[in-house]
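Why do we care about 3D structure at all? Because function follows from shape, and shape follows, mostly, from sequence. That is the central idea of this module. The next example makes it concrete: a single protein chain, its amino acid sequence, and then its structure expressed as tokens.
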Amino acid sequence: MAEARALLATLRGADPGGAADSLAAPPLAEVSASPDPWLAAVAASHPRLRELEAQVGRYRDEASAARRRTWPDLELRGSYGWRETLAGGIPQEDLFSATVGFTVPVFAAQRERSEGAEMDALARAGVSERRAAELELRRQVVAAHAAAAAAGRAVHLLADTVVVTERGAVEAAWSAYRTGATDLWRVFEATHSVYGEEVALVRARRDLARAEGRLLSLTGRGDLLGVALPVVKEGGR
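And the structure:
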């Protein structure tokens, strides 16, 4: 057990020699009735959307650079040289020169325009891809929220009503058996029934945890679940 705890702490980036966390299942947070707080995280600051937006910006910059290469390139050059006095005190005039040149992309203009048009097309496709990614993220958030809400209702129904009722039925069966009003088979039947409902409760809690984890991975809004996410400092420390 200690070895497993140390390995788990190492994988989490925590000190293996620190205080051990409890292995008890954490309480599941309540999911909001509306998905709007989760959908608010699917904004321009979302990492996936920022990545696609940056890609669109790169395509646009490349298109602009390609179009600029079709313009004539003006080149200015100048030089100045100091000449020493010759033997006998004969002076020499300094030398200077200046040149002006134009580079006209006669043969490359068509290629550069084609490259710019290609980058513009890629930028437009990137805008559409970003919009599609945003819609897909919103769809996944809505689906995960619906799954979490359904699992939460199942957990409350099983924990607060069904399992409590079944456990009361087991106690009643035992009481009836002690008084001779029923046989042991009825006790076993009631016990098996409550066991099945408790298994269903565990599965509902598992489904709720998975749905909440999905919401967290899609949006990063740990605050909506009462989860404090680790803060990664500069340099990964």
